[in-house]
Structures are given as structure tokens and as C-alpha cells.
Amino acid sequence: LVFDYHSARCMAHVCLGLLKGCAAHFGQVIHIMHQNQTEDGSQVRFWLEAQ
């Protein structure tokens, strides 16, 4: 799964934590990669892969 995070608040780290927490809650093992699309972190692309 690939998706883009967009927010003027630049809180992609919170999004990452929510993804990890959801996976743990549902007993799923996932590999998460992310890359800033802008220097300020307002846009980040996430890649999720089931293990």
C-alpha cells in the first residue's frame, strides 16, 4: 500500500505511530517505509508491506 500524508502541521511522525499502533492492535506485522516529499515534512509518502 502506498499513500501520501499531507498536512500543514507536519506531523507525519504521529501518522507513523498510528500505523504501528493499529498493526500491533490487530496482530499484524508490517514493514513501513516513508520519505519526505517536501523539506518541511508537510508531505510524506508512506509504503506499507504486509509481512
TrEMBL record:
UniProt xrefs under InterPro entries: H-NOX_domain_sf (IPR038158), Heme_NO-bd (IPR011644), NO_sig/Golgi_transp_ligand-bd (IPR024096)
Highest taxon in the source lineage: Bacteria
Domain Heme NO-binding intervals: 1-34
Gene Ontology terms, MF aspect: heme binding
UniProt name for this protein: Guanylate cyclase
